[in-house]
Amino acid sequence: MKLAELNPQQRAAVKAVDTPVLVIAGAGSGKTRVITHKIAYLIEQGLAARHIAALTFTNKAAREMKQRVGQLIDGNRAKGLTVSTFHALGLDILRREHKALGLKPGLSILDSHDRLNLLKEIAAHHEQHFHPDDLPAHAHKIGSWKNDFVLPEEAGDDPAALLYRDYQRCLKAYNAVDFDDLILLPVLLFQNRPEILEKWQARLRYLLVDEYQDTNRTQYRLLCLLTGKLGRFTVVGDDDQSIYAWRGAQPENLVQLHRDFSRLEIIKLEQNYRSTGRILKAANRLIANNPHVFEKKLWSRYGFGDPIRVLAHEDEFAEARQTAADLLHHKFRKGGRFSDYAILYRSNHQARLFERALREQRIPYFLSGGQSFFNHAEVKDVVAYLRLLVNPDDDIAFLRVANTPRREIGPATLEKLGSYAQRRHVSLFAACYEMGLTQVLDGKAIDRLQHFCDFLGDVADRAKRGDTLAVIEEMLETIGYRDHLRDAAANPKQFERRWENVRDLLDWLARLLEEAEGGDDPLNATVTKLMLLDVLDRTRDEEAGDRVTLMTLHAAKGLEFPHVYLVGMEEGLLPHQTSIDLDDIEEERRLCYVGITRAQKTLTLSYCQKRRRYGEMVDCTPSRFLEELPQEDLEWVGKSALPETEKKARGQAALQQLKAILQEAG
Ligand SMILES: Nc1ncnc2c1ncn2[C@@H]1O[C@H](COP(=O)(O)OP(=O)(O)OP(=O)(O)O)[C@@H](O)[C@H]1O
Ligand SMILES: [Mg+2]
Fold first, then answer.
1. Secondary structure letter of residue 4 according to DSSP
2. Closest ligand 1 atom, CA of 10?
3. Is the ipTM of this complex over 0.95?
4. pLDDT tens for each residue of 414-470
5. Which ligand is nearest to the CA of 273?
6. pTM for this one?
7. 6 Cβ inside 6 Å of ligand 1
8. Which of 598, 601, 611, 624 is catalytic?
9. CB within 8 A of 530, min separation 6: which ones?
């Protein structure tokens, strides 16, 4: 490991192992590098890799970090190292400690879609009346409570709290957890069972957290519990890049850290190693419009660089087309690869037109996140079958495929089965075999249900005995899934595409099964992994190769690209309309800051003069963020510069406090 690859501040952060460390610094200043080098340093100092865990927020970031560590130390010494997302670590804890939580081995993980469906199910049978339109808000609230470490009995007498209680009870009955439980349940477990906590503390002796600014309260608790009083951890973050307030992330956690760990060492980094001077200047100028904790004195040794281009397009179709054309032209002039380019946008729905334009120009691309693979109905169907094979009590999966393909188990039957199961506090699957069911359903319906359940049980048994993939393929054959797809498709092409998705899923499954071989219950491990990938960031493993990256600003955090297009810079899009309505622009500004600071060499911003909204073409106003950039560094293409407008700044208590702390720290 080469400490020489670090500047003095980074080196200090790496070598400080006896106190908790917080590195707080702007984008591109080498925070993630501190983490990867520190992992290598700790191992060199004699701490076995299996005692170290580095946590990030996305699978992609975790994969990248693993790779970077791999370049620093040889593979053997890195064996057993945990580099994962918070949620993957939580899942690992749950899988190992499920008994202590009263759960069975085959856990199901619900995504936000499943959560809403389950709430609908609960609301339908609840004595209290819930308006269907309110359910998404209730679902959101339940998520916020979980992120804020508010338990059902502490949620007060809010209508959502009633649902929260029943929801948690149902999850348990179904042997399921939702995304937020992956953090919440380990925290509860550790609080209630000190001996289990001790075991984990002994295993994970040093923790490192990247993007610390985006941790929520529950994650913070998990961190504190795991590191215990010794506070053996290093966290790195940038308050200007906090972009998950809606998921409960709290910059207050930076303050909290200082309060809870009096020996905390705070280290700031000031040299940027990513971007040209001009890009850095633009980023600094933009973020200066937010109330500030400390003046960022980021500087770069790289040249000042090309002007930042601003392209005005007639409408979103022109934007997509011309961006693709510009990219091709740019690449032709500069040389380089497609993978040097990223197109970043605020919302997933913006991706579609860019995809189409890139395809038309034969530019290879990789779409990260969004409406993707796992959202296709056929993929969800097959995954639901897989979920049922490892956990028959997974009601969401049961409801999805009990009648897919059709086996005359209609909505009325499922409805009656559902309310019966709810009364009895058992899963749908279990309810099918209860004697009492004869009081609500006729014999034929019960026969059909039991036939379905028997079938699943039989497949599950065989799948566990070996040759799992073949058993699953045979199951799809037996239920006639392919014919079902053919019948349901609008045309042959659509059918082919859907069937191909199923084939892709099976290929993927085969790979994961291979990886899991040798462990106990490979099918179980594989399906859980598949579900987590699905829930976490919905990316497929296809990003390798020479492709342009298409992704949201949220997904781009922590990454860097030589050339970045930041598109859709309009009021209503960036900043997003909901934030404008709530007069809460700061988080949007941070998002924009994240976007700009992804760029290493060139940055191109664009906006449309018109855009279709709810089927109508409406005039657009260029984003206020364009006005906040240093106008002398912008090169306007297709339109003249914007008039300067007034800027306003607002204070924020937590940030103020942090400022004081940082000043104290020097
Ligand atoms: N001391 C250094 N010498 C040379 N290059 C460095 C040094 N530190 C970091 N870099 C490089 O600078 C770039 C940015 O580093 P890194 O990704 O660690 O920054 P970061 O602070 O984590 O950024 P972000 O806030 O966007 O996550 C990377 O390409 C990294 O390899
Ligand atoms: Mg980073």
1. G
2. 1
3. yes
4. 888 988 988 888 899 999 999 999 999 999 999 999 999 999 999 999 998 889 999
5. 1
6. 0.80
7. yes
8. 598
9. 383, 386, 508, 509, 512
